[in-house]
Amino acid sequence: MSGKPPPRASGATPMLEVDRVSAGYGAVQALSEVSLHVDPGEIVTLIGANGAGKSTLLMTVCGAPRPRGGRILLAGEDITGQPTHAIMRRGVAQSPEGRRIFPRMTVQENLLMGAEALVKGDPAPQMEQAFALFPRLKERLSQRGGTLSGGEQQMLAIGRALMSKPRLLLLDEPSLGLAPLVVKQIFDAIRLLNQQTGLTVLLVEQNANLALRLAHRGYVLVNGRITMEGPGRALLARPEIRDAYLGGGHG
Amino acid sequence: MSPAAAIRDAAIAAAVAFGLFAMLVGLRTEIGPQSNLILRQRWAAVAILCAIVFLGRLLITWWLGRRALRPTTAAGPWTARLQQAGRLFAPAMLALALLLPVLPGVGRYELDVGILVLTYVMLGWGLNIVVGLAGLLDLGYVAFYAIGAYSYAIFAQYFGLSFWICLPIAGILAAFWGVLLGFPVLRLRGDYLAIVTLAFGEIIRVVLLNWTELTGGPNGISGIPRPTFFGLPFNASGDPDSFAGFFGLEPSPSHRVIFLYYLIFALALLTNWVTLRLRRQPLGRAWEALREDEIACRALGINITTTKLTAFALGAMFGGFAGAFFATRQAFISPESFTFIESAIILAIVVLGGLGSQVGVAVAALVMIGGFEVFRGLDEWRMLVFGGAMVVIMVLRPRGLVGTRTPSIALGKRRAISGDLVGEGHG
Ligand SMILES: Nc1ncnc2c1ncn2[C@@H]1O[C@H](COP(=O)(O)OP(=O)(O)O)[C@@H](O)[C@H]1O
Ligand SMILES: [Mg+2]
Q: Where does the signal peptide begin and end (chain A) (predicted)?
């Protein structure tokens, strides 16, 4: 139950604008003319089945693979075709699919690596922010990343992404393989983060039910094309969505 | 383990042994009386070997229990002790190395072995940057050793440049080739990277072998200038402009050996110092992050290209330094010194030492190269002994002798974190 979407001043530049972007790998066309936008302070979710192209979209925003067509704008600036590290330096952070924390490094080192290449100055404030969101991380500070539970690893991945003080946070399936209770904890943290700091979030999910409840707006991706869009609640109420992603019945 | 299971286990071991020995021992070609090839079959020997394996496996499982052979990454008793004594261990080794030339009973032979060991310590530390820290499997490291050696030889021979000028040139040229190798392999990882680097090592060797005008081909380059003590040559003349004469010493051939010993000692320490410094800096941390997870590195805005290229360049540079040292010490080099087996030995040192551990690499170099010398009397059995020893070590300690890593960044207390419990990370 997120609050009202932040009022969109007409003509305000979106934080992220994906404009008719196509992308793929070799002969595989994973995205076809995808357009979406995320306004500052918004949580937007992109839902879709396995292989729909959700991860490809996040990766394309980050610069690899390069789009085959279309434009990507970050806060109005064209970032199409820039190398990944340059894009991340402009205030994008990502918690990748499968979490991908550094297994042999401690929790603390993992967190500090998040700030390492992207921000100068003392990382302590972001660290405190991560601990406030996920107190569990503070307890595990000197434990190796590889020995954390799946949920803790996801918390670490998000905390690590926050270390670079991003303007736009990209989350790729944070609920993947986690128990419902842990997923709720993580989604609550994302909501809290958005409400308290106004951080803009693009959330990629297969768990349509939870994602659409959390997000202000949502897009549905099918075979590399956007087929539906609208406010989270409204999408949740549509029968096509209920049948395709929520297994009908409950809700 | 129940007796039945133990017997089945031993039978499997014997079957594996049969698979290996059937071809290696069972069949043998020999020159017959009419100088024709005849095939001799030795199935009795195979049977005996398999029986030994069967019984040995059975005894091990029964007496020690199966646990004893289970690979462990937990801090074993001797790692724990090494960790405790760690603070003393490294300085003690350092002191021993420093004092070796003046210790009683240390003669020319011991110093030569010491020089050899230190050369491999340095090569191990150099490769450790690439393989241990950055996690880029490089099977062609010997190429940079060769480039350093030939650079020194050629620049010293044709241009008459002194060792101290050639040394940085050799390092820079090797680093340049490291970057050149790095570019095409930027997108490769693991086995593919290994194959390309292996090919690179062979290409360099074949070029050295065939570019006869420059490298002398298979005859190599001889008469390479020996090092001087900052301009003072080591010779028996006793002239005031020779080392012995200048310092008013009795001329002795051991002066040069001692000088060479301290030279490689200093070069190895330089490698170690640079590595330790860099490990605590953004570049070193980026290398380690790269080893752990390349995709995560990209997501964190680390520039993968520069991170990989600097690892290749620095590793290659130290290989080049070691090569220049090798050339001046031997006074003769040929492509034969730079075969794949050298790469394999250096890689084995890094892996045995525990991928990333400086102390581990030094110990592994001492054990491997020192061991080679100690067991010289065993002739061709030497390789067998060492192959066996390596298999045993890797079975018992898959993460190498010192499979621990100290966090490079920590607020407050620093703790060594061993490989216990960490598989490859369940993520
Ligand atoms: N590295 C890759 N190389 C080739 N094809 C890929 C690669 N990654 C993804 N694909 C293909 O692109 C399509 C979209 O994949 P992905 O973006 O991972 O989907 P999602 O994240 O929605 O499950 C799939 O058909 C997948 O097989
Ligand atoms: Mg995906």
A: none
Residue B104, token pair as written in the block = 């009683």
CB B63 within 8 A of CB B24: no
Which of A62, A116, A145 is nearest residue B285 as measured by Cβ atoms?
Answer: A116
| Domain range list for chain B | 3-64, 84-396
Q: Tell me if residue B73 falls in helix, strand or coil.
A: coil
Interfacial residues of B (vs A; Cβ cutoff 8 Å): 282, 285-286, 288-289, 292-293, 295-296, 298-304, 405, 407-411, 415, 417, 419, 421-427
φ/ψ of B394, rounded to 5, equals -70, -30
Q: Which residue of B has its CA nearest to A83?
A: B303
Asked if B268 contacts B276 with a C-beta cutoff of 8 angstroms, the reply is no
Which residues of chain A fall short of a pLDDT of 50? 1-2, 248-251
> Which ligand lies nearest to the CA atom of residue A172 in the structure?
2
Higher pLDDT, A24 or B424: A24
Domain boundaries, chain A: 16-91+167-249, 100-165
Nearest CB to A85: which of B302, B407, B424?
B302
Instruction: Give the pLDDT confidence score for residue B125 in this predicted structure.
Output: 96
Rounded to an integer, what distance in angstroms lies between the CA atom of residue A225 and that of residue A48? Answer: 10
Beta-ladder partners of A45: A203, A218
List helix spans (H) across A134-231.
135-139, 150-162, 180-197, 208-214
A207 contacts A175 by C-beta, under 8 angstroms = yes
At the topology level, CATH places domain A16-91+167-249 in Rossmann fold (3.40.50)
The ligand with the least distance to the CA atom of A57 is: 1
- CA dist B354 and B75 (Å) reads 13
Mean pLDDT (chain B, rounded): 85
Categorize the per-residue pLDDT at B254 as very low, low, confident or very high, splitting at 50, 70 and 90: confident
A56 CA to centre of own chain: 12
Q: Please report the pLDDT score of residue B236 as a whole number.
A: 74
Q: Percent of chain B beyond pLDDT 90?
A: 48
Q: What is the mean pLDDT of residues B194-203?
A: 94
Q: What is the pLDDT of residue B419?
A: 40
